[in-house]
Design brief:
Elements: H1 3-6, E1 14-20, E2 26-32, E3 40-49, H2 52-59, E4 74-82, E5 94-97, H3 107-110, E6 135-138, E7 142-144, H4 151-154, H5 157-169, E8 177-181, H6 185-196, E9 201-205, H7 209-217, E10 222-224, E11 240-245, H8 250-258, E12 260-268, H9 282-288, E13 291-294, H10 302-317, E14 320-325, H11 329-338, E15 343-347
Parallel strand pairs: 8-9, 8-11, 9-10, 11-12, 12-13, 14-15
Antiparallel strand pairs: 1-2, 3-4, 3-6, 3-15, 4-5, 5-7
Helix pairs in contact: 5-6, 5-10
């Protein structure tokens, strides 16, 4: 499709887009179809995943948000136009997009840690996201996918990339006992990846029986209520070599520290409120020689996630729950906040 044809429509270059304002209103608006720069591509989204970031943007605000914002940074779609300088992508390609647009030149970008770029400008946060008929993305952030991959599964490549960064940050899970606190999208993807990467035992802890049942359907044999792990310091309390806190809940992080084996690693993946404080017993960290590591976003793992998704597509598909038309964003966000499913998605009908 040529760019000219987009602007020859009766709407004269207009498209529908979900918009969120700084006073937390959400509505569907007619906005101009974006024109890709010479190094960008124009994409027609096929599926979007809702993320906790989208809920923060809607209800509380999120650092770096530029309002009014079109949300959604987890998506797949098809290229409909390419800029003059783009090579390797063409109209019709089925793609997923790394939403983290960075400068590419700072010390963090050069070190392979673009998630820490001080000029980070994420799609769906600081740039228009994919809850729209069209979205623009830099060609270097856009990755061609296998045609047989389902669009809704492909939209989970972005959280999978975050998971690969977290697992890499753990300094290795092969043959190690792993505990994942939290049975949401991130927690279950972490468990699946640890299983794929040869962990000795993977246990998921979540208070929701429904989420534990979904974990079982995704092939995870060990899922428990967090209370079953045993109290801190009790004989028989379970300890693990690697613990991932993927709940974003204060009590989950505090409890995670109770169950790290000596010389073990706690990886904090859950996103907590910026002002939240958690009590840590420094003597325990000292005595057990614990390592506490933060894992922020996806770093440089998007290309790897494209490949890994081909290996876990069937298991990842189990995590997809409620799906809403994209223009029912408010209803989808309400359903996600209710916590009845795992991955809430938006479809383009």
């Amino acid at each position: 499709m040529s760019l000219d044809s987009l602007f020859d429509s009766p709407a004269r270059g207009q498209m529908k887009a979900v918009r969120i304002t700084q006073d937390h209103r959400v509505f569907v608006a007619d906005v101009p179809v974006p024109t890709p720069a010479e190094d960008e591509v124009l994409i027609r989204p096929a599926a979007c995943g809702l993320c906790g970031t989208d809920l923060h943007i809607l209800h509380h605000g999120f650092p770096g948000s530029v309002y009014p914002v079109t949300p959604c940074h987890e998506f797949s779609g098809h290229v409909v136009a390419v800029g003059r300088a783009v090579a390797g992508l063409r109209e019709g390609d089925f793609v997923a997009v790394d939403p983290n647009v960075t400068c590419g030149t700072c010390r963090w970008c050069r070190a392979g840690r673009p998630n820490l770029c001080p000029h980070l400008s994420p799609i769906g946060v600081a740039r228009p996201g994919a809850a729209a008929e069209f979205v623009v993305a830099p060609a270097r952030n856009t990755f061609r996918l296998k045609a047989g991959l389902r669009a809704d599964v492909a939209a989970m490549i972005e959280p999978l990339a975050c998971v690969l960064h977290a697992v890499d940050s753990s300094q290795g899970v092969k043959d190690r006992d792993v505990l994942v606190m939290g049975g949401g999208t991130m927690g279950l993807l972490i468990a699946i990846v640890c299983d794929l990467f040869g962990a000795g035992r993977v246990t998921i802890a979540d208070p929701s029986p429904a989420k534990r049942a979904i974990a079982a359907r995704a092939g995870m044999a060990n899922s428990v209520d967090p209370a079953a792990l045993g109290p801190d310091g009790a004989l028989g309390a379970a300890c693990f070599d690697v613990v991932f806190e993927a709940a974003g809940v204060r009590r989950a992080l505090e409890q995670a520290l109770d169950h790290v084996e000596k010389t073990g690693v706690l990886v904090q993946v859950g996103v907590h409120d910026a002002e939240a404080l958690v009590g840590i017993n420094p003597f325990r960290v000292y005595e057990r020689e614990l390592r506490i590591i933060g894992s922020n976003s996806l770093a440089d793992k998007f290309p790897a996630a494209v490949e890994v998704m081909n290996d876990i597509a069937d298991r990842a598909a189990v995590l997809i729950g409620d799906t809403f038309p994209v223009w029912e964003f408010a209803q989808a966000a309400q359903a996600m906040a209710g916590g009845t499913g795992i991955k809430t998605q938006l479809a383009f009908l």
